[in-house]
Automatic annotation (TrEMBL):
Catalyzed reactions: a 1,2-diacyl-sn-glycero-3-phospho-(1D-myo-inositol-4,5-bisphosphate) + H2O = 1D-myo-inositol 1,4,5-trisphosphate + a 1,2-diacyl-sn-glycerol + H(+)
Domain PI-PLC Y-box: residue ranges: 346-432
Protein's name in the database: Phosphoinositide phospholipase C
Species: Gossypium darwinii
Membrane topology according to the record: Peripheral membrane protein
Superkingdom of the organism of origin: Eukaryota
Length: 578
């Protein structure tokens, strides 16, 4: 790795000297502070862990494990090279390894739940294949809510899963159910909810009931009457499958409204950049044009609850563990809290954006005991997503996302559910459950804490990318974007300077982020390669929940646009709460 050659034309080549990864000056100074005669002993390393890394309970045994892990010939200490290897190694991640540590004994309505939308689609919403593969991938990632649209097959004697009214190719329901059973608890033992969007006759509903009961057997949750007064807790539902649907209307009435969509919206081209559009800003809460908004569960979606249940096959009705529905009327009726009954309400992204402007506090109040699901608007044909914070800061449990819609919004979703051991359930902050005072995210609150972030350096692109991936004629020109996704007052993005022609960029820049609601904040990190003539290239990203961010100097692994971890690419960063 001493020199690298780039061919500029047939007879001319450029050669660049390749730097060797070296500890930044701040790291060298810290090493000197905690070492003697060029060696940091066990006691010196323990003091470093307590004082700099803020690991208050660090012991000499912890320090010894680190020394052993870097395989340095000094058994009783480390030199600068080994110390730097520890700091930039996998043994020093940015998030605490706490496992599932939230209280899991509260009702389901007290949690944000990792939720998919049209979970069976492999690509866009109009013409992609339906398959069990994206369902399997979602479950492996820890997604806990799987949505299936169920329709009669072409011969009307069996049940398929597909996006109705489109050119998507169907997949058999039984195949999806078997895959859910096999992979449901690979990533998490906490319950999986299957939301069914039902377009079946009572006869086919009875067939679905038979499929579901035979496939899942004893792990299928059978609700008692008490479950409709208060939702059970995730702890009591470990390794259980829950069915959630609403009493259906007239057979196949459902998606006809889709034909009336505004044609002007259909032709919109996606301007998604190489790494995805910037997450929409929530500071100036906008209200879109709702005149032609079609809701997949709305289509005249008012029902009388009990009255419409008479059309249900009895075997099917008894499967429903979380009853969904929407009473007659507008937002006031939908968001009315019934002290004797809990329900799941669904709302499109557009309807929800409108609701938060006029009924923000009612939404927060409603989601204390009821479940609200928000899903992408129907014009997102490319399977893109919206800013999930608009849902979370109003207490929405099921912020439903297209898990194949890679981009910044989905990165935030991945980041949120890295919390609580990646189990797919994150306990809502107390202020969203407080019955004495209703949280209003539009009100700017006092700063609770300030996160100070130092971006030292990065490495690994040389190993994970071809040497002409970023630039055909020279090494890459990297810069880092770092910021916060949270309530409007906290959300911001900043960036480092651009370092030219360097596979080992060393920025050494400091940023400060005042946080008014750290409980909902995510740290956003992106690396890009500057390109004068075209769009900047993507060099990696991650999102980290502030609530579980470890203070101190940490090695931050970066992920691809699809959320897959790179083998070698990472940043060295310092996090301090001041």
């Amino acid at each position: 790795m001493s020199k690298q050659t780039y061919r500029v034309c047939f007879c001319f080549q450029r050669r660049f000297r390749l730097a060797v990864s070296e500890a930044p000056e701040d790291i060298k100074k810290l090493f000197e502070q905690y070492s003697e005669n060029g060696i940091m002993t066990i006691d010196g390393l323990q003091r470093f862990l307590v004082e700099v890394q803020k690991e208050d309970k660090a012991t000499r045994e912890d320090a010894q494990k680190i020394i052993d892990s870097v395989k340095h010939f000094h058994r009783k200490g480390v030199n600068l090279e080994a110390f730097f290897k520890y700091l930039f190694g996998d043994i020093n991640p940015p998030l605490a390894s706490l496992g599932v540590h939230h209280d899991m004994s509260a009702p389901l309505s007290h949690y944000f739940i990792y939720t998919g939308h049209n979970s069976y689609l492999t690509g866009n919403q109009l013409s992609s294949e339906c398959s069990d593969v994206p369902i399997i991938n979602a479950l492996k990632r820890g997604v806990r809510v799987i949505e299936l649209d169920i329709w009669p097959n072409s011969t009307k004697d069996d049940v398929d899963v597909l996006h109705g009214g489109t050119l998507t190719t169907p997949v058999e329901l039984i195949k999806c159910l078997r895959s859910i059973k096999e992979y449901a608890f690979i990533a998490s033992e906490y319950p999986v909810v299957i939301t069914l969007e039902d377009h079946l006759t009572p006869k086919l509903q009875a067939k679905v009931a038979e499929m579901v009961t035979q496939t899942f057997g004893e792990i299928l949750f059978s609700p008692g009457p008490e479950c409709f007064k208060e939702f059970p807790c995730p702890e009591s539902l470990k390794r259980r499958i829950i069915i959630s649907t609403k009493p259906p209307k007239e057979y196949l009435e459902a998606k006809e409204v889709k034909d009336k969509e505004d044609d002007s919206q259909r032709g919109k081209a996606s301007d998604e950049e190489a790494w995805g559009n910037e997450v929409p800003d929530l500071k100036g809460s906008h209200v879109a044009n709702y005149k032609n908004d079609f809701d997949e569960e709305d289509e005249e979606d008012t029902d009388d609850g009990e009255k419409s249940q008479h059309s249900l096959a009895p075997e099917y009705k008894h499967l429903i563990g979380i009853l969904a529905g929407k009473p007659k009327g507008g937002f006031d009726a939908w968001l009315r809290v019934d002290p004797d009954k809990v329900t799941r309400l669904s709302m499109s992204e557009q309807k929800f954006e409108k609701a938060v402007v006029t009924h923000g506090k009612q939404i927060v109040r409603f989601t204390r005991q009821n479940v609200l699901r928000v899903y992408p608007k129907s014009t997102r044909f490319d399977s893109s997503n919206y800013n999930p914070l608009i849902g979370w800061m109003h207490g929405v449990q099921m912020v439903a996302f297209n898990m194949q819609g890679h981009g910044r919004s989905l990165w935030l979703m991945h980041g949120m559910f890295k919390a609580n051991g990646g189990c797919g359930y994150v306990k809502k902050p107390d202020f969203l459950l407080n019955s004495m005072e209703v949280f209003d995210p539009k009100i700017k609150l006092p700063v609770k804490t300030t996160l100070k972030v130092t971006v030292y350096m990065g490495e690994g692109w040389y190993y994970d990318f071809h040497h002409t991936h970023f630039d055909a004629y020279s090494p890459p020109d990297f810069y880092t974007r770092v910021g916060i996704a949270g309530v409007p007052a906290d959300s911001v993005m900043k960036k480092t300077k651009i370092l030219e022609d360097n596979w080992l960029p060393s920025w050494n820049e400091v940023f400060e982020f005042p946080l008014t609601v750290p409980e909902l904040a995510l740290l956003r990190i992106e690396v890009h390669e500057y390109d004068k003539s075209e769009k900047d290239d993507f060099g990696g990203q991650t999102c980290l929940p502030i609530s579980e961010l470890r203070s101190g100097i940490r090695a931050v692994p970066l992920y691809s646009r699809k959320g897959e971890k790179y083998n070698s690419v990472k940043l060295l960063m310092h996090f301090e709460f001041i």
